[in-house]
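TOKENISED FOLD:
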Amino acid sequence: MEFLKSSTYYTFEKATAECEERDYIPELVFLYSKTGQTKRALYLIIDRLGDVSQAISFAKEQDDADLWDDLLDYSMDKPRFIRGLLEEVGTAINPITLVRRIPEGLEIEGLREGLSRMIKEYEIQYSISLGVAKVLRGEVALAQNTLRLGQRKGVKFDVVHRPGDHVDVTITDSANTDGSALTLPSKTDTPTSTKGPKAGHCVGCYEPFSDYETETLVGFACGHVFHLSHLLSMYSFPGHVSHT
């Protein structure tokens, strides 16, 4: 077995013939599984080794639905194998599928203990799933809050004039003096006017922006743009409510 696992200087056909001649069953199981003959390997485990634990481990390792069906078909008239499946199969297959395939009237020693163990394992799995789902919901809620705060954060535009017609615009995150992000005031905090803000106009003073702005501008994802002085003056209003 050590040679078969560590060396590549042999042909599977010759190795299989040697192992069959010498009745090396574990080695044959290894060779069959390596060449994709998983059903032959499983039948060797069941028929020649009679090891239900190894058969279950092999089926779990291969993760093949047809292989599980073969194992169940073979086990249904063998109480020892059925009990082993109940105790060791875990959540690898649907327990209802397993229980329904057990023939009526078949006496199985330790059936109650096997069923209890299987049910307990599913209860543990269900409890773990609930815990994971709760953690994921918390993570999603935290990420959503972070996203909303980011979307509400203003962007500061510093307009720098250069000789000629060239204008540089430097963009940075806007923040209060305490480091917290600036958020757009609610519409109830904006100056009263009969006309609403238009595109390219300051929401605070309703004046259009020009190419020669000397004051810093702060824009928000919703499309509102302020002169910085007008935005800061709104923060001094009592009853300020953040824009959503």
In short: DSSP finds ten helices and four strands in the chain. The two ends are 68 Å apart (CA to CA). The first helix runs from residue 2 to 6. The chain has two domains: 37-128, 153-235.
